[in-house]
């Protein structure tokens, strides 16, 4: 098992998550899924793993990353491209060739590699919603069961929302309702939607929660402490690095909430240290000092940046202030303290309470905060350490 810190973990580099996959497959038997989890927890790796094992579940799985799609038409083209490049893509292409759309699709070999690029020609194909329905209809008529996994859908939706050349909210509403109709009209095609930003948060912000109320919400959290120990032991064996139980315990404690990414990242820094093969707890502490220095801030800055992308102004500013207040004490802050923080900006008590409740729900579901004994505190110490060192004035 390799020490993977940037790339998606696949094959022998993928670790555990068996119970979560079992749950997802069971839920997909009857429902479409919305996978909610903070960034760096391993959503993409889990979906890719499901794709690897899809034959055992009786599904043909197509994985699509739409983070760089800039329009609805580009989104639909990405769907077509991914499906046509899948193991059963030839069957779909043969069926499409006999339809009106088959004469409007140009399927061209990529230069220097496998796969296909897809372009639509003709005025009829300007109707991206119809072109998308044709795909779902063709998949439905192929027989068998299909699962379309869409990663970073919320990022794409935010691009539509921020496009200055459109009626943003209307455009987003039409797209999300179109996706909902697709899910309901073609039950043999299942959908699994995910992203590093919560689609539930975006739809709540836009009062469009009914566009996703047909989705079963599933989650993905950190490893259990035992699984984290097992991962570190496996990595240590691969690289001939001795990690005693106290060392593993110290590393897990410093992270606090053992997300795969930070476990892998900390182990990578241990690999690069000078010294003997046996690692000490002092080595672990030094690694975390290194991770939190200015040269490595890119490992954490997205936790701050995503609030601007997900919430927009002024809610992102409120969230930053709330997190700053919570970070000042290891035990966190009470709800009353956080409410007083918003009082200057939101005078009306009922409005302030509603806003605070909304923001705390977002910060909890996105992995920033957790409520414990009537106080709100950071879910994992490593993030609090970053917030204190790099964000709080």
Shape: globular
Which CATH-level-2 architecture of the largest domain? 3-Layer(aba) Sandwich
What letter string, H or E per element, gives the SSE order?
Answer: HEHEHHEEHEHHEHEHHHHHHEHHEEH
How many strand elements? 10
Strand content: 5-15%
Q: How many domains in all?
A: 3
- CATH domain fold name of the largest domain: Rossmann fold
Oligomer: single chain
Total helical segments: 17
Q: Give the termini distance in whole angstroms.
A: 41 Å
Largest sheet: 5 strands, parallel
Structural class: alpha/beta
Low-pLDDT ranges: 109-113
How do the strands line up in the largest sheet? 2-5-6-1-7
What average pLDDT do the residues reach?
Answer: 89
CATH class of the largest domain: Alpha Beta
Task: Write out key terms for the chains shown.
Arc Repressor Mutant, subunit A, Rossmann fold, 3 domains, globular, single chain, 393 residues, alpha/beta, 13% strand, 51% helix, 5-stranded parallel sheet, 3-stranded antiparallel sheet
Structure described in brief:
This protein has 393 residues and is of the alpha/beta class.
Task: Explain how this protein is built.
By secondary structure, the protein is α/β, with parallel strands linked by helices. The chain folds into 3 domains: 17-219, Rossmann fold; 225-291; 299-391, Arc Repressor Mutant, subunit A. The chain is 51% helix and 13% strand. The strands form 3 sheets. Strands 2-5-6-1-7 form a 5-stranded parallel β-sheet, with helices on both faces. A 3-stranded antiparallel β-sheet has the order 8-10-9. A two-stranded antiparallel sheet has the order 3-4. Helix 3 runs parallel beside helix 5 (128-142), helix 9 (225-239) packs across helix 10 (245-255) and helix 13 (302-311) runs antiparallel to helix 14 (315-327).
